[in-house]
Design a protein that fits this description.
Helices cover 25% and strands 34% of the residues. It has 144 residues and is of the alpha+beta class.
């Protein structure tokens, strides 16, 4: 059982908008990096091979191949350094942890793609229309 005070402090630091990705998804993780007094966004792309922890300690691991060498990076989900996570492709998996991908190379690393159902397609289309409308409204307000 958690301490009530600890729970309250954690609640304040949780991300308000939940990151929408699953294990097996190929994602672009946009990470804010401070260089001196400047801030820039660096993109780390790869396959999500696991999630662990809970609350503010929840983490996810992204793996990619760079020049024939496997590179993994662990990110805290609720970190303010994570600007956004963009899902590029959804992989169909039957495991919570994809550690077996570490032993594979080349085409064997690829996962079968998971396509959205009819209901999910409708939700994705509605979200796309909403984003376009927001973008148009932002352009209109900038033009004024």
């Amino acid at each position: 059982m958690k301490n009530a005070l600890l729970e309250k402090v954690e609640q304040e630091n949780l991300r308000t908008a939940e990151l929408q990705f699953e294990i097996g998804d190929t994602v672009d993780v946009h990470v804010r990096i401070l260089e001196g007094d400047k801030e820039r966004v660096q993109i780390f792309n790869g396959v999500v091979i696991g999630r662990s922890g809970s609350g503010t300690r929840e983490m996810f691991v992204v793996r990619r191949i760079v020049q024939g060498e496997g590179v993994e990076r662990k990110f805290p989900i609720h970190s303010p350094r994570i600007a956004k996570v963009v899902v590029k492709r959804s992989g169909q998996v039957r495991r919570a942890k994809l550690n077996y991908l570490r032993d594979r190379t080349g085409k064997a690393v690829r996962l079968r793609e998971r396509f959205p159902s009819g209901k999910q397609k409708a939700e994705l289309a509605a979200a796309k229309v909403e984003r376009k409308a927001a973008k148009r409204a932002k352009k209109a307000s900038e033009a004024e």
